[in-house]
Amino acid sequence: MAEVLETVSGHGGELVLRRDGAEFEVIENGMFLMDTRNGESERLLVTGAADRLAPGARMLIGGLGVGFSLRAALDHGTVGSVVVVEREPAVISWNRTGPLREVHGAALDDPRVTVVEADLLEWLRTTGETFDALCLDIDNGPEWTVTEGNASLYADSGLAGLSRLLRPGGVLAVWSAGAAPGFTARLRERFGEVDVVEIPVPRGEPDVVWFARG
């Protein structure tokens, strides 16, 4: 039986950190959000983007999660610096000094990392920064958002805003717990090159990661 380590009030409601054996789980409002059991697709989100970039790339990771994506970015020889935008202070704390620190080897201590505590959509609308890669993992998918307002990120207007933050030759990478044909179509209308990668999972339909550029 899973052990509750901490329960806090977050921006999206009640957040719970649990330990189940050797693994950790994060639950939001009673809905499973993330855990440390696999992480293959979360790592591919950043490594697949980084593989398409030149050395010294500047990467944005939207959503800290359990740190799998950040660790993979830092271990990839192409990535020079990473900005992580995470809206939940508890998630940042659990990763920086709490139990999740051991999952990624204290990745937040790396001098190449800047952590921004902010709502990603609001931050994207106001930032003047540009990136070689935008790697987004803040929802269960374009058609299964954690927060209702996040749906605009995957609409035509959201994709237009994201493309303005990409440097020439930059890559937009988006994670999902399932297929989203409508989102694929919108990406192909805006970007010249779109790859859709399915990653098998132990149960249910495959995770999906999109890579778009041009």
Automatic annotation (TrEMBL):
Keywords: Polyamine biosynthesis
Keyword Ribonucleoprotein: no
Top-level taxonomic group: Bacteria
Entry's transmembrane regions: none
Any Pfam family hit: Spermine_synth
Name assigned to this protein: Spermidine synthase
